[in-house]
Amino acid sequence: MRFLSKFYIDGFILSILGMVVLASIVPARGDAAEVVSWLTKIAIAILFLLYGTRLAPQEALAGLKHWRLHLTVLACTFILFPVIGLAARVLVPHILTQDLYTGLLFLCLVPSTVQSSIAFTSIAKGNVAGAIVSATVSNLLGVFLTPALVILLMNTTGQASVDPSAVVDIVLQLLVPFFVGQLIRPKVKGFLSRYAEPTKLVDRGSILLVVYSAFSAGMVEGIWHAMSPWRILGLALVCCAILAIVLVATGFLGEALGFDRADRIVVVFCGSKKSLATGLPMATVLFAGHSVGLIVLPLMMFHQIQLITCAALAGRWARTAPSTPAADCPPGATDA
Fold first, then answer.
1. Which of 96, 282, 305, 316 is surrounded by the most beta carbons within 10 Å?
2. What is the reported pLDDT for 69?
3. How far, rounded to the nearest angstrom, does the alpha carbon of residue 133 sit from its chain's CA centroid?
4. Which of 303, 269, 330 is nearest to 129 (CA)?
5. How far apart are the C-alpha atoms of 111 and 174, rounded to whole Å?
6. Is 277 within 8 Å of 81 (Cβ atoms)?
7. What are the phi and psi torsion angles at 301 (to 5°)?
8. Residues 61-91: pLDDT tens digits?
């Protein structure tokens, strides 16, 4: 990584691209896909356990009380994005097909990611406590808000519902490990401070697993071969444009509302992300009988673009962040 940095090449981005290439050549199928899925869940659970052990309770409580920050992230996720999605209707049929536009609008309605938003906030040395609360609240509310917005703004079967297991998964996979980490923090914080370097691997390793798992699913589904290369290129450019607009808007909003550097990082990373893990199962239910593969393609493409772009941003902000005492840094906070 240090060798590559001399040539202004981000090793983490190369690792993400490597996962994309690996998934394209050797996608996880059948039992292997199940193993990758479980490994990803375990990695994320360990990540949140470490967040709990490294985050002081008073910082976590402060995160819960920071309501202005959380409302800002929710507004970006469920107001700014839908407005952009509705405006993109003008791209049909010259750039997007109707199915692709349906998928693009659906992308704009799903909640924010949890794991990667927090991981990138940690790498960039932002407000991890605020990111945990903002991203988790967005994901939990999204279980209800996304189907409501889909019914309000899109033509679906009218039988939209969300499996309650989505809420259970969030609680068991994210919140329970975090609170367990908080409970064991007094006993392990010294050990983790002395051996902080290996914890950096958890942040980035979990993201790489998410990329490989998501891209493998797309390859197995065969959705990349369901349309012409020009349509795929047009969709990619539209996804890049939407992400650029939102990144600029969230950056401006964070400054306009007077947030400090750590909170502005939360607004950018939590407010600009869209969750593939939540969006895919929702799409299966909400668009039963439709071409779900094409509908989720914009979300899958946006997901890959946001990971690569935010990895670059997180690395850049990490290198320009003011130094902090190692004992107070969350996992991965000193990553470049």
1. 282
2. 92
3. 14
4. 330
5. 16
6. no
7. -70, -45
8. 666 678 899 999 999 999 999 999 999 999 9
Mean pLDDT of 193-211: 70
Classify residue 242 by burial, with Cβ atoms within 10 Å: 0-12, 13-18, 19+.
Answer: buried
Query: Distance between CA atoms of 310 and 95, rounded to whole angstroms?
Result: 26
* Interatomic CA distance for residues 138 and 159, integer angstroms: 23
CA pseudo-torsion sign 316, 206, 235, 112: negative
SS3 sequence of the chain: CHHHHCCCCCHHHHHHHHHHHHHHHCCCCHHHHHHHHHHHHHHHHHHHHHHHHHCCHHHHHHHHHCHHHHHHHHHHHHHHHHHHHHHHHHHCCCCCCHHHHHHHHHHCCCCCCCHHHHHHHHHCCCCHHHHHHHHHHHHHHHHHHHHHHHHHHCCCCCCCCCCCHHHHHHHHHHHHHHHHHHHHHHHHHHHHHHCCHHHHHHHHHHHHHHHHHHHHHHHHHCHHHCCCHHHHHHHHHHHHHHHHHHHHHHHHHHHHCCCCHHHHHHHHHHHCCCCHHHHHHHHHHHCCCCCHHHHHHHHHHHHHHHHHHHHHHHHHHHHHCCCCCHHHCCCCCCCC
Pair of tokens at residue 122: 């940690």
- Kindly state the average pLDDT of the residues 293-302: 81
Amino acid at 193: S
- Owner of token pair 């797309």: 218
335 has pLDDT over 70? no
In the block, tokens 């693009």 appear at: 104
Residue 231 in tokens: 């349509």
Q: Residue 240 above 90 pLDDT?
A: yes
What whole-number distance in Å separates Cα of residue 18 and Cα of residue 208?
Answer: 9
Joined tokens for residue 89 = 């209707």
- pTM strictly above 0.85: no
